[in-house]
Amino acid sequence: MAEVVRMPKMSDTMTEGVVAKWHKNVGDSIKSGDLVAEIETDKATMEFESFQEGVLLYRGVDEGKAAPVNGILAILGEKGEDYKKLLEEELAKDKEAAKEVKAEAPVKAQAKPESVAAANPPKQADTAAAPVAMPIHSNNGEDARIKASPLAKKLAMEKGIDLTRIMGSGEGGRVVKRDVDWFKPGTFVASQSVMAGAVTTESYNEVQVSQMRKTIARRLAESKFTAPHFYLTMEINMDRCMDARESINAVSGSKISFNDFVLKATAAALRQHPKVNSAWLDDRIRYNHHINIGVAVAVEEGLLVPVVRFADSKTLSQISGEVREYAKKAKDKKLQPADWEGNTFTISNLGMYGIEEFTAIINPPDACILAVGSIKPVPELKDGQLRNKHVMKVTLSCDHRVVDGVTGSEFLQTLKGFLENPVVLLGQASI
């Protein structure tokens, strides 16, 4: 008997999935455990294995197309079995369910002003300012047309300037008054290379939003507009940390990064300040006893946040190895749900891109996220000697419903102490 295979929920935040590739065609026999398709979720492309058996009678989603969670993915049954009646019944059920959900949603009383404006665009009010196409004679002897405002045309005629020698800075390459005012004879030849590569017509391309980007947009918008963020920035002297890193990398096979030091120091500081290692749950606050630190990893379509679990119990080498492995898996789209779930705190580091200071949006359900900037030399007068010290700025974004200013400040003071005195940090665990 034919049965429906529905789009599985393959991550906790997944609302729909895209069929990246079908591994079975209509008419193929499928056994339990067979690889049926590759499905792109909001965070990774994952393999979907069937737990049902039968012949593939119908594929409900084309490759590259999306279906909502619990939408009809396929129909399995016996060879030659008529599945159309079942399909119609299931589609009717889905349609009815969608109506019920829609009926529960609040009805908008009227269209938004911007919608009205978009449907009825205003007429051009100032026709005198509109671009005018003026026939000219080009240098190669062929007729051409150039866009120029009436005022620019008038000024050019008064000054005896050929408009074909002016590169317009207005919309769509239109020559405007400032272009004529700024024009100097003899500059046309020098600007030929610029004009050759300039885009003088309006054009664009649109790219379908990926599942990952949709989820990032939704979750970060929810975080930014529901959690009252406030920010604390602190400057940390990284001289001793730089020396410690150089010494460790010289004597060990590992290549420890500054981010590894920050992660280890953060874990140690969270152990002393458990209120920062917490989450807002509407009617209660959860104070986590375990420390799972999410590390933001940039991929082509956005950010993924794999989690280093029990980070305070791990050595620098273990942390370094895990982060490198997660970064590789993230770029290859091979992260699994277990890799990105369960964070209690998050670190976002843009120091490697030369960003000195920035603020990050809290990654739910965490109460805080640490933004890490670059290390840069700053002149310092010490003992009558002018020398450079190397400083790094970190900014803690806090959910004010959970963490107060003093709590966040005390956490940063502890973090600063560990990074400015790495011997104390390394004394807690082996390298």
List key phrases describing it:
alpha+beta, OB fold (Dihydrolipoamide Acetyltransferase, E2P), Dihydrolipoamide Transferase, 3 domains, six-stranded mixed sheet
Describe the structure.
With 431 residues, the chain is of the alpha+beta class. It has three domains: 3-101, OB fold (Dihydrolipoamide Acetyltransferase, E2P) (Beta Barrel), CATH 2.40.50.100; 130-136 and 146-197, E3-binding domain (Dihydrolipoamide Transferase); 211-426, Chloramphenicol acetyltransferase-like domain (Chloramphenicol Acetyltransferase, 2-Layer Sandwich), CATH 3.30.559.10. The protein is 31% helix and 26% strand. The chain is built from twelve helices and 20 strands. The protein has helices at 84-104, 113-119, 150-159, 177-182, 192-197, 211-226, 239-251, 258-272, 316-331, 337-340, 405-420, 422-426; strands spanning 3-6, 16-22, 29-30, 35-40, 45-49, 54-59, 66-68, 72-77, 132-137, 143-148, 229-237, 278-280, 285-287, 293-295, 297-299, 302-304, 307-308, 345-349, 368-382, 385-399. Strands 11-20-19-18-14-17 form a six-stranded mixed beta sheet. Mean pLDDT is 82; it is low at 107-144 and 188-194.
